[in-house]
Amino acid sequence: MAVAAIVIALVAQPTHAAGDAAAGQAKSAVCAACHGADGKALQPTYPNLAGQHASYIAKQLTEYRDGDRVNALMSGQAANLSDEDILDLAAYYSEMPIIANTAAEENLAMGEAIYRGGITAQGIAACIACHGPAGLGNPGAVYPVLSGQNAGYTADQLIQWRAGERSNDPNNVMGSLSQRLTDTEIQAVSNYIQGLYSASN
Ligand code: HEC
Ligand code: HEC
Questions:
Q1: 139 CA to middle of ligand 2, Å?
Q2: Which residues have any ligand 1 atom within 6 Å of their CB?
Q3: Domains in the chain and their CATH numbers?
Q4: Rounded Cα gap, residues 48 and 40, in angstroms
Q5: What is the pTM of this model?
Q6: What was the pLDDT predicted at 168?
Q7: Are 195 and 137 in contact (CB under 8 A)?
Q8: CB 185, CB 110: distance < 8 Å
Q9: Which residues of 42-79 are buried (b: 16+ CB within 10 A; e: fewer)?
Q10: Which of 46, 128, 161, 192 has the fewest CB atoms within 10 Å, i.e. the most exposed one?
């Protein structure tokens, strides 16, 4: 009897540490219109969410909601999410397998050189240092998965950072890198990242 009471008390505690993927699924119907039922974006300029780290998804949704990351399509979607909704949605998308993707041949060698080695003369650090050889990032450090991400979306983010339109990265790491990348270099590294799926699977 005493044991049963303790068990009930523990089960009744609300969980704030991690989200509930099943609850997230129930809340994701509106998101599927753009991000797909399987986390694969319906437009190449929209991000795939499947397999992204829950920590990174939660950070982004919180920042859209609070106005620290602004986008005409996303800000309204996040405006009414509770902290619990955000954790549940993050858990749901993070458990999906990363979407298969491939790179185009054009610019691939330049993109690989930037991703793996940076551009020393321009003071650009190698992307691999934080995002990893297969683009899998680091959930603890909140470095996002890049593997297989749509090149159109990736290039758009680098251009937003370069223009100062996205500024939610800790210590302006991505902002200061992007300011030193040319359009050609952005297209090349974004194409290489799209093809990283094959390195991670
Ligand atoms: C009308 C289309 C649309 C809908 C609906 C939508 N999104 Fe988005 N979402 C976007 C676009 C476009 C972006 C990229 C915006 C930008 O450049 O900042 C985005 C970005 C995101 C990101 C950041 C991804 C990253 O890699 O940084 C997350 C997380 C996200 N959406 C989750 C959601 C969730 C959860 C919902 C449902 C509550 C949702 N979205 C509904 C279009 C949409
Ligand atoms: C010192 C660590 C570091 C290095 C080096 C780095 N990044 Fe990042 N990157 C980050 C962090 C941290 C974020 C998440 C920013 C945030 O919280 O919004 C990020 C986010 C991104 C995103 C946004 C992903 C999304 O889903 O919206 C892209 C794209 C990206 N990085 C590409 C690159 C490329 C390309 C390079 C190399 C030229 C690079 N990064 C080098 C730390 C790094």
A1: 13
A2: 30-31, 33-35, 46-47, 49, 52, 57, 60-61, 69, 71, 73-74, 77, 89, 144, 156
A3: 14-94 (1.10.760.10), 108-200 (1.10.760.10)
A4: 5
A5: 0.93
A6: 95
A7: no
A8: yes
A9: eeeebbbbbbbbbbbbbbbbbbbbeeebeeeebeebbe
A10: 128
What pLDDT digit, counting tens, does each position of 158-192 carry?
999 999 999 999 999 999 999 999 999 999 999 99
Between the CA of residue 77 and those of 47, 51, 63, 101, what are the distances in Å?
A: 15, 20, 12, 26
Give the separation between CA 3 and CA 131, rounded to whole angstroms: 47
* Block residue for tokens 């593997």: 147
Return the residue whose CA atom lies nearest to atom 40 of ligand 2: 127
What is the residue whose two structure tokens read 């994701």?
A: 28
Mutational test site, ligand 2, from 115, 124, 156, 174, max ligand atoms within 8 Å of CB: 174
Question: Tokens 């680098």 — which residue?
Answer: 158
What the block records as the tokens of 51 is: 């397999």
Q: Which residues contact 171 (CB under 8 A, 6 or more apart)?
A: none
